[in-house]
Write a sequence for this structure.
């Protein structure tokens, strides 16, 4: 029973959620834009981070981890797309590789953070990483306000967005 | 074309050199990179947490710690 539970839960957690997120981000990204898909993922990560930081039971923790997996799957399939669409052809390869660099940097960062919090001898010790995680997700959510929508998405959209794209080209419109 | 010919043609220049990097460009790269960063952070946050003493004492002190670890870690 234990082995069965383990076999079922192992793929169901983070990467299982990432599978769901990677699938559902495609219609969101096509209908509402790359920024909105990233914002959805950021909201999911904020919720999941807060739930994990305040977990009182292991079931609550695993459910929050699945939610964070959905958000992570959306991010990892959406961010390279956005990056390749906003970058000019001359530096497209370099800028898309920022995706891999960001993931690797996050691995190093979170491991170093875990090492640092290892010296905090309090019951809330393990929650601190998740609090930082929630803060970063909030920063991502707020910072989306300041980046332009992907020009490629705007051009394949129907009339309304194409007008906004034209406004942006003349430099007189406000792009959001 | 002779070597003495020094006339500067901006349209040729734009072909050879990539566009100038502005502050907005850097901001966009950083924010999109933050998105990738969040995926890596969400993926790897568990590795360090499973080693924390307080986490083990709270969640993994019962009999079936192995299956719970498999469930949380998830690959």
């Amino acid at each position: 029973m234990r082995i069965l539970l383990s076999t079922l839960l192992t793929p169901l957690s983070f990467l299982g959620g990432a599978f769901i997120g990677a699938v559902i981000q495609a219609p969101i990204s096509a209908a509402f834009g790359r920024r909105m898909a990233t914002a959805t993922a950021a909201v999911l990560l904020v919720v999941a981070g807060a739930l994990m930081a305040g977990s009182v039971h292991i079931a609550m923790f695993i459910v929050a981890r699945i939610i964070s997996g959905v958000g992570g799957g959306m991010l990892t399939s959406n961010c390279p797309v956005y990056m390749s669409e906003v970058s000019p052809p001359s530096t497209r390869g370099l800028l898309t590789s920022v995706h891999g660099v960001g993931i690797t940097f996050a691995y190093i960062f979170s491991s170093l953070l875990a090492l640092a919090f290892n010296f905090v001898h309090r019951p809330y010790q393990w929650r601190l990483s998740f609090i930082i995680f929630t803060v970063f997700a909030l920063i991502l959510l707020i910072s989306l306000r300041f980046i332009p929508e992907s020009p490629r998405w705007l051009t394949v959209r129907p009339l309304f967005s194409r007008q906004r794209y034209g406004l942006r080209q003349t430099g007189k419109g406000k792009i959001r | 074309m002779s070597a003495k010919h020094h006339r500067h043609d901006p349209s040729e220049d734009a072909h050879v050199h990539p566009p100038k990097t502005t502050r907005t460009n850097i901001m966009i790269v950083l924010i999109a990179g933050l998105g990738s960063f969040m995926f890596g952070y969400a993926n790897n946050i568990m590795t360090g947490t499973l080693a924390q003493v307080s986490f083990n004492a709270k969640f993994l002190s019962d009999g079936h710690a192995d299956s719970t670890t498999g469930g949380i870690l998830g690959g």
